[in-house]
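Tokens for chain A. Residues wanted.
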């Protein structure tokens, strides 16, 4: 195996087939499948439990012990991670067209129609961040302090969550064709369409190849929990990458 990442399959083979969105919280991986069911997976053992159903989730994020989902309808809901029960936040359909979302310190940051928005996760009220910049964001991440955006041209930016001011990291287009990614510590791990896994230093914007296509060619979703990154493959297998 050429990969620098030591990985091992956990849990039942194929158990995460049809996963459309996922996030980690308190040692568990929460995933929504295409049939609308929400699952909680123990990140150590791979054992899972169903926590809800009737979801049509496009984006799922976590903040301060809670889950939040943006549904296909464009509505935002807070989800109890133990029961799967949800409650609506804000105006129905207000988050339609969202292309990327992440939560930080009680605020949901999302991009739609070229604008960056901040939503108060207490009451669902929102405001635009920045000066009407034309965002073309495909992926949003956070390291707990700043936001990081991968734009449609593959460029990576560090974004101030208060002002919306941004600076490019690394080479223009350096993250083109990114399929999925996850932040762990001070690094962003991404898998591109080629199947290659990259490790990016978020302070410097420098990257290195961390895993070969023979290992990550079928990875469709990355999540981080604890000191590991987790990969869900197109066949529904779950892998833990000890980094």
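Reply:
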């Amino acid at each position: 195996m050429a990969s620098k990442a030591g990985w091992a399959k956990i849990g039942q083979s194929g158990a995460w087939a049809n996963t459309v969105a996922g996030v980690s919280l308190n040692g568990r991986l929460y995933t929504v499948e295409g049939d609308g069911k929400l699952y909680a997976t123990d990140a150590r053992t791979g054992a899972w439990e169903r926590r809800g159903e009737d979801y049509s989730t496009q984006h799922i994020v976590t903040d301060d012990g809670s889950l939040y989902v943006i549904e296909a309808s464009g509505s935002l809901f807070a989800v109890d991670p133990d029961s799967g029960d949800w409650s609506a936040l804000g105006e129905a359909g207000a988050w339609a067209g969202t292309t990327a979302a992440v939560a930080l310190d009680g605020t949901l940051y999302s991009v739609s129609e070229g604008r960056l928005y901040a939503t108060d996760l207490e009451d669902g009220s929102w405001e635009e961040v920045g000066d009407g910049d034309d965002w073309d964001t495909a992926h949003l991440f956070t390291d707990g302090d700043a936001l990081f955006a991968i734009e449609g041209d593959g460029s990576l930016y560090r974004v101030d969550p208060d002002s919306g001011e941004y600076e490019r990291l690394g080479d223009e287009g350096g993250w083109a064709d990114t399929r999925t990614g996850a932040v762990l510590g001070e690094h962003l791990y991404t898998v591109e369409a080629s199947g290659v896994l990259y490790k990016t230093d978020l302070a410097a914007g420098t990257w290195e190849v961390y895993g070969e296509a023979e290992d990550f060619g079928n990875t469709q979703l990355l999540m981080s929990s604890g000191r590991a990154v987790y990969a869900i493959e197109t066949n529904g297998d779950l892998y833990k990458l000890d980094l």
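Helices lie at 213-216. The chain has a mean pLDDT of 95.
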